Structures are given as structure tokens and as C-alpha cells.
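Running this now, will post back.
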Amino acid sequence: MAKKATAKSAKAKKKPAAKVAAKVKKAAPAKTAKKAVKKTTAAAKKTVKKAVKK
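Update: finished.
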């Protein structure tokens, strides 16, 4: 599910999502990275929903 969600959000907002993912991968070890990715994907879903409403 997470991979599909990130792919959709990345397509919706290519550069921001990619940058966030890159930062998460560089900055965090595996466990914290997974948590951060969940948070970012949740945030991305929210932003996508807002964009769709507009």
C-alpha cells in the first residue's frame, strides 16, 4: 500500500515528494525512515486531496 501511495503522490507532486523521500533516506536509519515515510505519505495524501478539491 505504501509504495502505491507514494507513487501516486509522487506523480501528483513530482519534485516535492521526491525531495522529501531523498531527505528521509539520507537522514534516517531504517526504522525511523519507515516511520518518516508513513508520515510523509500521509501528508502527501492530504495535500493531494486539497489539490484535487481546488
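DSSP finds three helices and no strands in the chain. More later if anyone needs it.
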